[in-house]
Amino acid sequence: MVLRYDHSPIQSFVAPHEWQAIEAAVSAASDALKSRSGLGAQYTGWLFARRQAQEERTRMMDVVARMRSLCDTVVVIGIGGSYAGIRATLDVLGHAYQSVGRADGARFASVHRASGPDVFFAGYHISSVALTQLLDVLEHRSFGIVVISKSGTTTEPAIAFRILKQRLEQRYGKEGARTRIVVTTDAHTGALRSHAAEAGYDTFVVPADVGGRYSVLTSVGLVPLAIAGIDIEAMQDGASDAMEAYRLSSGMDDPSAQYAAVRNIVHRKGKTIELLATTEPSMWAFGEWWKQLFGESEGKDGKGLFPATVQYTTDLHSMGQYVQDGPRLMLQTVVAFAPHPNALVVPADVDVHDGLDGCVGMTLDEINAQALYGTVIAHADGGVPTTIVHVQERTPYAIGQLVTFFHIACAISGYVVGVNPFDQPGVEAYKRNMLALLGKPGLEAERAYVQEQLRRWGLQ
Ligand code: PA5
User: What is the helix (H) or strand (E) element at residue 54, kind and residue range?
Assistant: First the structure.
């Protein structure tokens, strides 16, 4: 394992009897998950870190090779679980500055180039500004599309796909466009499946027993990540090694169960927010993936820690004050990578008198680690308990393990909370209202209701 979960900094917040009190519930949740007998068990296919059959893998790698040879840029269209894990992986493993501009409306002007085409994202918003900017950049590029939607009916990616497909067909003709479009969706159902069949696109399947936010290690993530040049074999190896280790360890011996226990102990003691703290700018999208995983899995029936993220040291100059001194509502979970062996070193400078000569010769990663530990101690003193996930290397193998650690922990934690961690009934409410307003047939009663609300609020 290249990943270690360390809950020692939480000792002063959690008494031994509190560990003992939660042990039975965590063990039962872990058993229910691993024996596939808990709530939503039909969506635990991800537990097996299954590999594709050889024939399917060969077909996939042929399509990947074609996209890499035809395209200097690939637009990945998707939202939620059909987007977040891909972006997270590419950000952590990619390069932040091999950039042609701020093409996808995201927080950083980063273009992902592991060793293949640039990857841009679309379909995770309904912003005309962001999509227009993407179209501008694509004007001078040879591009292709990977569209991902398990249901095949999600509004945001469906709109982006219409627009980008039209642009592709204008440029290359229908047949040329066909060779540059790859679809990942349900095996049988949904508008995207039937459209792909009619148009003759290459398609891959989102397994029926894997929900969106648990799907990055299926074709959902593997196809675009392989196109970008990520070593997906290594990522899958990391995931299966972690899965094997966690499945073989029972009860509280499993680090992901320990993390689930910590979350639930502090939640029962009144903490309502969990901060995922990272120390690398490239981890921003990973934080977004983690927020979706825990938010959508656990936030049900009035339960669940609110998942939020901070980036250190940046946010020590903005959110640090609140974390240190605001209401004592938080648990903090840090994901920390081991120092890079070739990290930059602080040079000596006889002309500067900033009191930092003690740092001369230290690597930036060493300094970052000291800043983190100083922060963790200050937060503990201020009443914010912290645990740390240490990751030894920034590799596809390690990302496979990290994703698996959080997947298992999230499912166990959801069971301990008493919710089904694999559904998302709360997402439907906004969709129904939006589709009613967009005139979808069959939603006439809902349309009347939302229009009336908007009139009363003076919004329409
Ligand atoms: O985790 C989930 O199930 C969701 O976040 C979905 O991934 C998201 O809503 C996108 O759905 P789809 O892939 O059907 O377009």
Answer: helix 54-70
